Amino acid sequence: MASYKDPTDYITHHLTNLQVKVSDGWMINVDTIVNSFLLGCLTFGILWLVARRMTSGVPGRLQAAIELLIEFINGQVKEVYHGKSTLVTPIAITVFMWVLVMNSVKLIPIEPLAWVTHLFAPYWRPVPTTDLNTTAALSLSVIMLVVVFSIRAKGIGGYIHELFCTPFGANPLLWPFNFAFQLIELISKPLSLALRLYGNMFAGEVIFLLIGMLGAVGVGGVLVAGLLHAGWAIFHILVVALQAFIFMMLTVVYLSMAEEHH
Amino acid sequence: MNIGGTLVVQAIGFAIFIWFTWKFVWPPIDLAIETRRKKIAEGLAEAEKGKAALADGERQKSLILKEARDQAGEFKALNEKQAQSLIDEAKAQAKLEADRIIAAAQASAATELQKAREQLREQVAVLAVAGAEKILKREVDAKAHADMLNQLKAQL
């Protein structure tokens, strides 16, 4: 088992990525990528297996559970998005499911998980969404999709027109202000998406680690830490699902706004 | 914090998962759910139709029942009337018969009386003649006194 100099060392150790240098200035967080891809393949693999054996008759238990989840997501999408694209629901499913399973790694106690990961790596950050790379990748992809949806709905000319002529008006004097406003919107959307998820997950992880440090005090500390950890984890069931839901809902809202004509 | 390579890899992963979900996961689930929705809608419509048919049948049943009841009542009334008229007829006939019998009896009694009266008259005449003979001590010539005797007879 590893030993730590001080609490800061303990926390930073558990929140340090296993990095591999690809070239100058390009570092890859192997743990984030491996964890998120494994979880993604597992989740979407299970979804695929269920989807392949889908029956419109009486569903099995697993099918019923997955249908419930997918129907819930589809219901949310239908409520917000009224366009024709068949891509919105799959995007929402992907966002929700992936973020949900990545967040859910948090519910596995971090220290026992570290005992396993220490067997093969000096650092291993278990929750991919505590890495800003993951949340930023998701939010930037979403904003790219928003731009694509806008252009598809309004044409390239229409989109450029919108960039310069809304929200203040079509007067050429207002063009710079309009464009600045739109630019801020384009930047703030992915930024808030990425930081909200990252912040919630990272902060939650730090609290887990702070609680875990109580275990260093002694037997009493271990007991208190266990109780606190359980409480925080139960609370985090809500946070994990809520953050995934918020990310998905905002994605859908942004996509449906992209198709609206101002 | 190191933003860059990981982000690109994660974005590619995200794109692959979206594509995979769009291509392989969502369509069969959507199809199955929609098919089931349609089936349930059809089932509900059928149930509604069945309910309507049942109500219709119920209505028809009560209609037929009412008709039958009405008819039965009519039959009963008719039967009663017929029975009554039969009884009346029988009564009338019986009365007629009785009257006839009574009249016949009365008539026959009257003839008997008449006959008895005739006989009595004869006998009285004979008795009178016999008495007169006895009084006169001689034979009354029945022929000679026939007129007188007849007159006497008529007077009785």
Elements of chain B, N to C (H/E)? HH
Number of helices of chain B: 2
Distance from N terminus to C terminus of chain A (CA atoms, Å) equals 60 Å
Which percent range describes the beta-strand content of chain B?
under 5%
Shape of chain B: rod-shaped
Brief sketch in words of this structure:
Chain A is mainly α. Helix content of chain A is 73%, strand content 3%.
Secondary-structure map:
The complex is a heterodimer of chains A (262) and B (156).
Chain A: H1 7-14, E1 19-23, E2 26-29, H2 30-52, H3 61-80, H4 88-104, H5 110-117, H6 132-165, H7 175-213, H8 219-259
Antiparallel strand pairs in A: 1-2
Chain B: H1 5-136, H2 146-155
Give a written overview of the molecule.
The complex is a heterodimer of chains A (262) and B (156). Chain A has helices spanning 7-14, 30-52, 61-80, 88-104, 110-117, 132-165, 175-213, 219-259; strands spanning 19-23, 26-29. Chain A is mainly alpha-helical and 262 residues long. Chain A has one domain (16-121, 132-259). Chain A has a two-stranded antiparallel ribbon with strand order 1-2. The mean pLDDT of chain A is 90. Chain B has one domain. Chain B is built from two helices and no strands. Chain B has helices at residues 5-136, 146-155. The model of chain B has no long low-confidence stretch (mean pLDDT 89). Classes of the chains: A mainly alpha (262), B mainly alpha (156). The interface between A and B is large, with 46 and 32 residues.
